[in-house]
Amino acid sequence: MLHRMRAGELGAAIGESSRTLLPTLYYLVFAGLIGLVALYVLGVVDPLLSNN
């Protein structure tokens, strides 16, 4: 069953999405940077890809 939103509910949903967008992007960018530092600076390797 489809739920129809009123204009106020839609505005609240959009406000909630935009309020959580910047923190989400912040954590994604910094998690990626930490991963790149681990790979290229610290030399961390994936044990599944190593040829032992």
**Structural class, please?**
mainly alpha
Order of helices and strands: H
User: Distance between termini?
Assistant: 55 Å
The gross shape turns out to be elongated
- Describe the biggest sheet? none
Helix content: 55-70%
Number of helices: 1
What is the tally of beta strands?
0
Tell me the Rg in angstroms. 20 Å
Strand residue percentage: under 5%
Arithmetic mean pLDDT:
81
Q: Flag low-confidence runs.
A: none
Write the layout of secondary structure elements.
Elements: H1 7-41
Essential attributes:
single chain, 52 residues, mainly alpha, 1 helix
Offer a concise description of the structure:
With 52 residues, the protein is mainly α.
What does this structure look like?
This protein has 52 residues and is mainly α. 67% of the residues lie in helices and 0% in strands. The chain has one helix at residues 7-41.
